[in-house]
Amino acid sequence: MSKPLTLYLAAPRGFCAGVDRAIKIVEMAIEKWGAPVYVRHEIVHNKFVVDGLRAKGAIFVEELDECPTDRPVIFSAHGVPKSVPAEAETRQMIYVDATCPLVTKVHNEADRHSGNGLQMVMIGHAGHPETVGTMGQLPEGEVLLVETAADVSTITPRDSAKLAFITQTTLSVDDTIEIVSALTERFPKIVGPHKEDICYATTNRQEAVKAIAGKTDTLLVIGAQNSSNSRRLVEVGQKAGCDYSQLVQRAKNIDWNALGDISSVGVTAGASAPEELINEVVDAFKDRFEVTVEIIETAQENVEFKVPRVLRA
Question: Does pTM surpass 0.90?
Answer without folding.
Answer: yes
